Amino acid sequence: MYLPDTLSRAYLPDTPHPENTDLEPVSTLDFLSITEDKYTELQEHTQRELNQLQTTILNGWPNVRQEVPASLRPSWDSRSELAVCDGIIYKGMGIIVPPSLRRQMLNLVHESHLGIVKCKQRAREVLYWPAMNSDIEETVKNCTKCADFQRKQPAELLIPTETPGLPFMMVGTDLFEFESKTYLLTVDYYSKFIGVDRLEDLGSKAAIEGMKAQFSRHGIPEVIRSDGGPQFASKEFARFCKEYGITHKTSSPHLPSANMEVERAVQTVKRLWRKATDKQLALLDYRTTPLDGVNLSPVQLLMGRRPRNKLPSLRDLLTPTAYNRQDVMQRLDHQKANQKFYHDSKSASDLPPLCPGDQVRMAPSPGSKMWNPAIVVKRHASPRSYIVESGGREYRRNQRDLRRSTEAANTTEHCSDLAADDNTPYLNNNQSSSPPTEPCGRSSSHQQEPAAASSSETSRPDEPYTTRSGRAVRCPQRLDL
Fold first, then answer.
1. Which of 86, 287, 356, 407 would be 28's cystine partner, CB 3.0–4.6 Å?
2. What is the DSSP string of 402-461?
3. What 3-state class would DSSP assign to 230?
4. pLDDT at residue number 120
5. How far apart are CA 312 and CA 107, in angstroms?
6. How far apart are CA 317 and CA 314, in angstroms?
7. Angle 308-317-329 (CA atoms, 0-180°, nearest 5)?
8. C-alpha to C-alpha distance for 456 and 438, rounded to whole angstroms
């Protein structure tokens, strides 16, 4: 290596004055998008709070981790990326923020209320300090504004309703409106037989009379499943169930899928009636059509015979015949198993259970978009159902309508807004025949209560209010001429 060795020894002589006198001083501030005052503040806090780290970087790191002071060990793994320039410590292209300025930087990162992932991406480009990711996660979780407006919970695994052992043993019921008229619908969970009766009004007495008329035709069921509508939440309906020996089970508020058998029956009836000129004939045709996978019609499963319709048929087909009840139950269970398989395969998973005392947020009621703060009180007798407390009142909610929160995010400033979303107090019935256990919200297929019957007594006439069904009512504004 003669040539390199010769050149290395033939260095230029030292000159007292540099050859180029036109060089301009360069400041680090010219390469940062930061104000001069903020830059000076960052230098001062770094010198005061990170002086030990700064000295270690300039003098060199020890050879082993054990020789590093305890306060600097979190920076040991990234020691090769740390550098000091103009009184500020850098990790790559990111500025290491002193502890006293980290809260201010977290507020700037989350100023637009982006999610956890987006906030981390914003901060990683320009900032760094040990455990910065966990601090960002904690900041977003404790943000009250982010807790107010959230997405819905993902779908959970399907829990099929157990197939009853006998026809008309378990019945679902609901009210619906069609062409400005109110109807009471019942559906048998065994035979899928749908019964529809018109009601004169929306009171519990009219609903009870409609049920009595249907029970006189098919017998008294053992279990009635419904939502927590006002017709089914009254003491009069509870007394009716007790006198007839019926167990009344209610679904979680604002969760129509918990009573999907009835909801689907309502959709079926409405779809038939929109296209048919004869409503009763449309119901007869549906009841006499064999069910898929069972090869027996709902009326055959319920009554053991096939009624005559307008289609020409042999008399032998109208003769009452017995069927294998165990085979029918197996076919029905097989259909439910297939439904569960296809439902659960679409990214459905069970949510982790909640415990008493957990801080949560309740899903918005109809007419609102804010998730209200609440605390879990206890589990309800129904699966995936909890009793939560919010604003000094207790409510029943399904786990799908509850999101985990933190105590810092559950401030009390929004609790007063809950009274406008849900006006019915919680009543404990323990899944018995006493009144339902929730402030009830009606689904879109339910008949809504008149606005005047559910308005708050303390609200002024010119203020908007929310009915029990969740419908926002605002008085008309007229010119005072």
1. 86
2. EEE--TTT--GGGGGGGGGT--SPP---TTSSSS-SS-----TTSPPPPGGGS--SSS-T
3. helix
4. 93
5. 77
6. 6
7. 100
8. 18
240-246 long-range contacts, CB within 8 A, separation 24+: 240/208, 240/211, 241/433, 242/433, 244/215, 244/220, 245/220, 246/220, 246/221, 246/222, 246/433
Sheet holding 82-85, edge to edge: 82-85, 88-91, 94-96, 127-128
Q: Which amino acid is at 181?
A: K
Kindly list the strands in the beta sheet with 223-226, ordered across the sheet, starting from the edge strand earlier in the chain. 194-199, 181-188, 170-178, 223-226, 247-250
- The list of the chain residues with pLDDT below 70 reads 1-3, 7, 10-32, 412-481
* Amino acid, single-letter form, for residue 282: A
Rounded to 5 degrees, what are φ and ψ at 348?
-95, 145
Structure tokens at 110: 């989350």
Could you tell me how far CA 408 lies from the centroid of its own chain?
20
What's the pLDDT tens digit per position in 392-425?
888 888 888 888 888 888 875 544 444 444 444 4
Q: Find, among 18, 440, 86, 71, the residue nearest to 230 by Cα.
A: 440
DSSP 118-162: HHHHHHHHHEE-TTHHHHHHHHHHT-HHHHHS-PPPPPPPP-PPP
- Tokens of residue 387, six digits: 């009793």
pLDDT confidence of residue 103 = 92
Instruction: Tell me if 423 sits within 8 A of 466, measured CB to CB.
Output: yes
Between the two ends of the chain, the Cα-to-Cα distance in Å is 106
Which token pair is 111?
A: 């100023």
Q: List, in sequence order, the alpha helices (H) in 291-346.
A: 298-303, 315-318, 325-344
DSSP summary character for residue 4: H
Residue with tokens 């679904």: 251
- Burial grade of 231 (CB within 10 A; 0-12, 13-18, 19 or more): buried
| Residue 50 contacts residue 102 (beta carbons within 8 Å) | no
pTM over 0.85: no
Residue 184, token pair as written in the block? 């009471």
Residue 466: predicted pLDDT: 62
CA 364 → CA 126, 143, 255, 262, distances in Å? 37, 18, 12, 24
pLDDT digits (tens, 9 = 90+) for 217-231: 899 999 999 988 888
* Long-range contacts at 448-451 (CB < 8 A, ≥ 24 apart): 449/202, 449/230, 450/202
DSSP one-letter string for 94-109? EEEPPHHHHHHHHHHH
Phi and psi for 249 in degrees, rounded to 5? -120, 135
In the 8-state DSSP scheme, what is residue 279? H
Q: 128: burial class by Cβ within 10 Å (0-12, 13-18, 19+)? A: buried
